[in-house]
Amino acid sequence: MEALEQLKEKLTVLVKNYAAQQTENQRLNSMVTELTKQNEALKARITTLEKDVVSVNFDRANLSEEDKDNMRLQLDSVIDEIDNILSTLND
Predict the structure, then answer these.
(1) Within 13 Å, how many C-alpha atoms sit on residue 62's CB side?
(2) Residue 71 and residue 51 in contact, taking contact as beta carbons nearer than 8 Å
(3) pLDDT on residue 87
(4) DSSP single-letter state for residue 7
(5) pLDDT, tens digit, for every residue of 5-28?
(6) Which domain holds residue 51?
(7) Three-state DSSP state, 1
(8) Residues 14, 18, 24: CA angle, nearest 5 degrees
(9) What are 51-91's pLDDT values in tens digits?
(10) 62: left (phi over 0), alpha (psi -120 to 50) or beta
(11) What is the pTM of this model?
(12) What are the CA-CA distances from residue 33 to residues 27, 53, 72, 91 (Å)?
């Protein structure tokens, strides 16, 4: 009988732990969803700001087409790097 009581106690502890893990899992999933939404909003804002900066800089500078192309390539690499950083933060 004592072994049965110990088994019952262990089972109760396991069920409580499982319920706590499920609750924590739901909380973490909600957090991931919220952070993903924030990440997408930030990416959109970065893209908009980068476009604004590029257009302002191009308007102010008397650059050759080659210089403009080089700047675009540099900005593309910066954007790619930012995307990589954001996706790393998202993981």
Answers:
(1) 0
(2) no
(3) 82
(4) H
(5) 999 999 999 999 999 999 999 999
(6) 2-90
(7) coil
(8) 145
(9) 878 777 666 666 778 887 888 899 988 888 888 888 887 76
(10) beta
(11) 0.51
(12) 10, 30, 33, 12
DSSP 72-88: HHHHHHHHHHHHHHHHH
Altogether, the residues listed in the chain come to a count of 91
SS3 91: coil
Q: How far apart are CA 66 and CA 77, in angstroms?
A: 17
Number of separate domains in the chain: 1
Inter-helix orientation angle 2-60/65-90, to 10°:
170
- The full DSSP string for 22-68 is HHHHHHHHHHHHHHHHHHHHHHHHHHHHHHHHHHHHHHH----HHHH
CA 24 distance to own-chain centroid: 19
Please give the average per-residue pLDDT across 47-52, as a whole number. 84
> Is there a contact between 54 and 4 (Cβ–Cβ < 8 Å)?
no
